[in-house]
Amino acid sequence: MNDSKIPSWVNIFVLPLINIMFAFAFAAGIFLAVDVNPIEAAGVMVRGALGYQEGIGYTLYYATNFIFTGLAVAMAFSAGLFNIGGEGQAYMGGLGVGLACLALDSTLPFWALLPITMLASMLFGALFALIPAYLQAYRGSHIVITTIMFNFIASALMVYLLVNVLKLEGQMAPVSRVFEDSAGLPMFHEMAAWFGFSFSQSPMNLSFFIALICCVLVWALLWRTRWGYAIRAMGASPSAAEYGGINYKKLIIVVMLISGALSGMMGLNEVQGYSQQLKLDFVAGYGFTGIAVCLIGRSHPIGIILASILFGMLYQGGAELSFDYPNIDREMIQVVQALVVLFSGALALMLVKPTEKLFVFLDQKKTALAGTKAEA
Amino acid sequence: MFENIILILDATLRVSAPLILAALAGLFSERSGIVNIALEGKMLSAAFSAAATATVTGSVWLGLLAGIGVSVMLSLVHGFATITHRGDQIVSGVAINMLAVGLTVTLGRFWFGLGGQTPALTDDSRFTAITLPFADALADVPVIGMLYSQLISGHNFLVYLSLFAVPAVYWVVYKTRFGLRLRATGENPHAVDTAGISVAWIRYRALIIAGVLAGMAGAYLSTAHSAGFVPNMSAGKGFIALAALIFGKWKPVPVLFGCLLFGFLDAIAIRLQGVELPLVGEIPVQAIEVLPYILTVLLLAGFIGRAVGPKAIGQPYVKSR
After folding, report:
1. Binning pLDDT at 50, 70 and 90, where does residue A254 land?
2. ipTM here
């Protein structure tokens, strides 16, 4: 890939954009198929996602989830591992947050509870990634398959706990009790008020900033430390890394623990920030969206933030769209997302050759032009 | 007691049938070296298109054809991405699964306006029970009568087809030239290429067969097991089939037993709900539901036997190396 004939700025910016354009073009076709004008729909989506404060709040609230899960996928990706278990790890992370809140919300003030819930989210997510990591490193079972299986194990465990253990007496819905008011993460509109700004009410909360801090930390870890170097070396070539004296088995475990912890922290946003109680299916596919986010963001924290905001816009804009158009629902966003994964991920190499050819052609033309000028 | 066992086994067959078809689909694709986590998505879209077509045309056979057609198309997308463009097989599978969840509901809502469901199918536009000859006559004979008329007779066409598919797949994979090449492609594509056989064409064919089988599995869900499509009705069955494929070590007959085992667990999970067992007390349904996944993880890790997949699985084939 490094012997490519195209300049790096094309590789980093232009190719991903072309891939996304392809995905959007196909999505537009599907919009047409269900009798919705795609250009109008795009307008509604952008206005719904960015046109007013509440919309922006929702967009960034969704983006928070995607930053966490996207970082988790990227972390594993940079070591050449495919962590497809973000879904289960985020579920478990949320469980950790929920259990900590349920146990301590009436005894501890918020500032003492927050470090505990953060630790719990990371610990639960990381431990749930530890078993697949161990099995990959020491028993040679493929991490993709084990993490898929663990997603199902997580969801069964959650159903069991909510139905049999955490459900309130005499209630039908499998949900835990709502946490005390003091336990919830501060909402962004509250935080804005501390500094004298006013912002419309939305579910965006403190965890957005925690997610941004995580981006900085992941960037620093991957590109500014020896460990990060070892991780990227392993991602580039496991055999070379091993030859260079890197203990890749240990590294697999470390990377997956970090990846699981990042996924787990998604639970902060959903459980302690948004719903303030434990309920079923709060992960709602965000773990899988992390894969799309990581692919578009090219596994780089800055790319991931941008891709997360894009997906936040898609989710929030999609919700807005479903108010205006009866033929559209959240599932439509899933289609757009799937097309993005297909074109930016699976078919990412499709357009490399044509783009290369185009650039070589332009290059030749330029030199030919220069040549004729020199002759003249 | 005997009657209960027969009923459980009967239910086992019914829930295993789509698993068998889907797992055999996975077998073709993975034996050729292509990871297929898209089984779930193919089943789901086939279930939708089969039910939708059967609703509109009133013919379950056209429904089956439509299901197969859509599933094969998704297989070709998978192939286009992973064989032609050497894309990541897992990523492509994830994309197809997402696409299936989204498209089935979006199109279903648009076409039928029932929140993503298709209208309930009447009995003449779905696969119904086939009564084998003499089943009624033998029903009163003790033991054999029950065994024959309850367990063996009275299933729908696709159940019998799934059982018939196992020896057929065995024959294709182990006794034909195509099967030999298929297995070789999954183990050592370079050798196949050296022999002058196109790796890409073998893999495409494997994916097309996988599409046909997964399409049948999907059609089973919506036109045989139930009467109509419900959003996300495959509910992880594609992944259970994948687990069964690994559990059966990528071989047709063990895969059949893997599917029957997982189907059996599914069948008793429903029956054990709320039942107090001696010694252990009530077993939570979820504990039985996750057994297939746990067993597969243990097997993959080599704690109970060892499952080693085709050697070249997951790697795009690059000619010059």
Report:
1. very high
2. 0.87
